[in-house]
C-alpha cells in the first residue's frame, strides 16, 4: 500500500506519545513498514507537541513532509490549526473539541481563534468531531482522550479489531485495560456515526 | 516497543536500538550524563541491561570513566548530548592520540533545530577535530548495526568511535532486528605507558600514529558499505548523510544517490559520484561539511552554501519538496505561525520553581544569572526572573564576574544537578576571589527536565539501587560559602526575607530551595 501519514497535534501531557505509539504498533503488527517520530524534553512542559506516524509498503522520512498527511489527529483545537500545511487536499481531520488556553492568551498577548471546526471545513477537509473528554469520562477513564481519538481514527483504517485490541492491551497500564478498550470502542462508534 | 507477528523485528526508537546494539556488542558498562535527545539510552540500559549502566555528574567524567573501563579491556558505551561533548572535549582530544584498549563507542546526540538545546552545533566537526571516525545512521536499524560496528572498529584501530545521532534518529521508531549478544570481554588491565601517558615525550609519536590511523580509516571506509551509491542512471544526484538520507528519498526517484554514513572518507568517492552529473544536491543535518568537499569537484552544487537550503534550523524532509517529481500539492497554512497564539512550554502547575522566583522578584536582585534546566523557563514572562542563561554551570561564574565590577545584589540561580555538574568549582572560585553574590540552588531532588533522573543528593542510582549519598548543605559549606540556608519555596514571604537579607550581605552566600519536583513528590514520599 502507498504510505499513509498521520499527524498528531496537541499539548504536552495529553498523551500524544502513547497515542502515536499505539497507532505505530498496530500498523507494524499488521505487517507494514512503520516510522514514528516524537519529540521529548523541553517540548513536553505544556508546550505544543506533535508526533508523526507513517506506514505502508515503504516509508522514507519519519517526519511527514508538508502536503502529505492523510490524517490530522487534533487533540487540542488551536494546535490543529498550526499544521494544516501538512495535510493533503481532502484529508481527514479527527478533531477533539477541546480548548486548552495557552499562557500567551491568558496574559493578553494573543487571541484564541474562534470556530476552529468551521475553519477546517472551510478548507475542504473532512472533519470528524469528537468530544473525547466526555466520552473518556463515560468510559470511566478521564485520562483516555488519546485512546478515544485513536478509536475514531481506527474506523478510517483497515487494521483488524484483534490487532487494535492486542495493541491497546500491551500499551496501557494493566489496571486501565478495560476502560481503555471501552474508550477505544466508543471513539470508533462516534466516528462511524459522524460519517454515515 | 513491541513485537510484530511472525517476525523477529521489533519497533524501537533509535536510542533503544543503540542501547540494544551496545548490549549485543558485549558492553560491560554504559555511562553518561542526561541530555535530550540522548537521555533514554542509559535509561533503557538501566532498566533492561543486567550489567552496569550509570549516570555520572558530567560528560567529562562519563568519558573518563569509559576510558577506565576500556583500559580494563572491556567494551563501554558513553552517551551525551551535543553540548555535553564540549564538556568532554578535554579527554576526547587526547584519548584519540593515546588510543583505547576495549572498544569505546561515544554516542553524541545532536539537536538540529535546537528543540531542547542552547545551540545547534554539529558533532561531526569534533570527530574530525579529534581525528576519530564518526558513524551516522539513517534509521534505528542502522543505528543498531553501526553501534555494533563501532565497537569492532574501536578495537581494530584502538580509537574511540563517535556515533552521531540527531533528534530525529534518537526519537524515531523503525523496525529493528534483534540478535544474540556477543560475550563480554574478559578483564585485562595491561600497563602500556607509551599509550596511556599523555605526556610531552609521547605526544609527537602518538600524533603520528593517529594521523596514520585516520588515513587508513578513510581507505577502510571504501569497502565498509557505510558510504555507497544507492541509485544511478540519472543526470541529477543527491549526496545525503544520516537522517537526511531518509529525507532525500522523499525527493522522488529521479536522482542518483550517494549515501554517507561514515567519516572520514576519501574525497574520490565524491569526485567519482559528481563526475557526470548536471546538478548535485547535498543534504546533511548541521553544517555544510560534505557540501564544502563536493564544491571542490563540481560547479553546480546545491545545498546550504549555495543558499538553496537554510544554514540554520533543521533541514527536515521539506527541503527538497520544490524539486519533488511527484504530485504533492501543498496548501498554504490557513494561518501563519506568527498569527496563531503561541504555546511556549511552561512550568507545571504547582512547580516549586515558580514560587521561588516569586520570592526572588520580591527581594529584587539587581541582576540574576541563570542556568540550564526546567527553571530556565523562569526567564519567560510573566516571571521574567532570569537575565542570562548560557551553558551548564555558568550562572555562578557569570555572577562572580559581574560582582568583581563592584556591582552588588547579584543572584545566581542554578539547579541541584547543574550545580553538581559544573557549579562546584565555580562556587569555590567565587569564594576564593571574594565575590559578593547570592547563589540560589533549586534542589528538586532530580534532573527534572530530562525525565527525573536521580542524583547523589537522593543517593539513588540509575538502576534505582541505593548508592552513595552527598549532603548539599555540607558540600556548600565545604566550598567555603559564608552561609548556607535552606528555605521552603512555598513559603514565599519567608523565602523573600532570607533572600533580601543575603543579597545585602557581603561574601558568597548560598540559599537552597528545598522542594521536590511536583511530578515526583508523591513517589519520593512513598520511598
Structural class, from secondary structure content of chain B?
A: alpha/beta
CATH architecture designation of the largest domain in chain B: 3-Layer(aba) Sandwich
Helicity level of chain A, as a percent range?
25-40%
Question: How many strands, which pairing sense, and closed or not: the largest β-sheet of chain A?
Answer: 6 strands, mixed
Question: Which fold name is given in CATH as the topology of chain A?
Answer: Pyruvate-ferredoxin Oxidoreductase, domain 3
**Assembly level:** heterodimer
Rg from alpha-carbon coordinates of chain B: 25 Å
As laid out across the biggest beta sheet of chain A, the strand order is 2-3-1-4-5-6
Uncertain regions spanning at least 5 consecutive residues of chain A: none
Shape of chain B: globular
Globally, the shape of chain A reads: globular
Count of individual beta strands of chain B: 20
> Could you estimate the helical fraction of the residues of chain B in percent?
25-40%
Distance between the termini of chain B: 28 Å
Our count of domains of chain B comes out at: 3
State which percent range the strand residues of chain A make up: 15-25%
On the 0 to 100 scale, the average pLDDT of chain B is 95
| CATH homology superfamily of chain A | Pyruvate-ferredoxin oxidoreductase, PFOR, domain III
CATH topology of the largest domain in chain B: Rossmann fold
